[in-house]
Amino acid sequence: ELQLLESGGNLVQPGASLSLSCTASGFTLSDSGMSWVRQAPGKGLEWVSGILTGGKTTYYADSVKGRFTVSRDNSKRIVNLHMNNLTVEDTAMYYCAKEDDGRFESWGQGTLVTVSS
Amino acid sequence: YVLTQPPSVSVAPRKTAILTCGGDNIGSQVVHWYQQKPGQAPLLVVFDDSDRPSGIPERFSGSNSGNTATLSISRVEVGDEADYYCQVWDSSNDHWVFGGGTKLTVL
């Protein structure tokens, strides 16, 4: 069974850094593009970052470009999102999603990031 | 690229709900739709404008033309109450884009 398990969410202060991980199982991670999508409390979905199969091609939303870095280790079946200089606007549930031909066909259950002083 | 969805739609049980997603010449894009129930992760319900993943009831259907993509849910059930999001790949900016979402209420 395909499964995506996010971890690393936490309560941090503004300006802090935090790393999230997504552990994949039930499919061949190296065959799939992966993305991070977030959802602020009571708000809609916002795509944050994507990484293609080999890991060399990455994409970022304008709201996080220059602060967030996505990476992957296919051998360990992990996709990471490193977040720097966090602001209160980054408070959200962060979902890992398996991308296929432009759509997000599978999602994890999310990990909560709260940025507050 | 901006996708515009009405914030809310209400429908009576067993009727058909029509959810729209507006965008500039969206008919030239490939549109996907997600259902999200409270406390749950999103679920893909329609992809490539009108295809359904396995396990999604035939009551869910999609279309896309001109400046509007549409998700139709026939014979609506109370269990269909959820937020629904449309999504495209914006190749001009190498971004994935979501609409703002529509809350479907079953009266």
Q: How much β-strand is present in the residues of chain A?
A: over 45%
Overall, the morphology of chain B is globular
Major sheet description of chain A: 7 strands, mixed
Which outline of chain A best applies?
globular
* Percent of residues in β-strands of chain B: over 45%
Q: By helix and strand content of chain B, what is the structural category? A: mainly beta
Gyration radius of chain A (Cα, Å) is: 13 Å
Q: What's the number of extended β-strand segments of chain B? A: 9
Low-pLDDT stretches of chain A are none
Distance between the termini of chain A: 40 Å
Chain pair forming the biggest interface: A-B, 21 and 24 residues
Number of E strands of chain A = 11
Main sheet of chain B? 6 strands, mixed
In N-to-C order, the SSE pattern of chain A is: EEEEEEEEEEE
Radius of gyration of chain B: 13 Å
The whole-number mean of residue pLDDT values of chain B reads 97
Which stretches of chain B are low in confidence, meaning pLDDT under 50 for 5 or more residues running?
none
Would you tell me the structural class of the helices and strands of chain A?
mainly beta
- Give the topology string of chain B: H per helix, E per strand: EEEEEEEEE
Tally of helical segments of chain B: 0
Helical residues, percent of chain A: under 10%
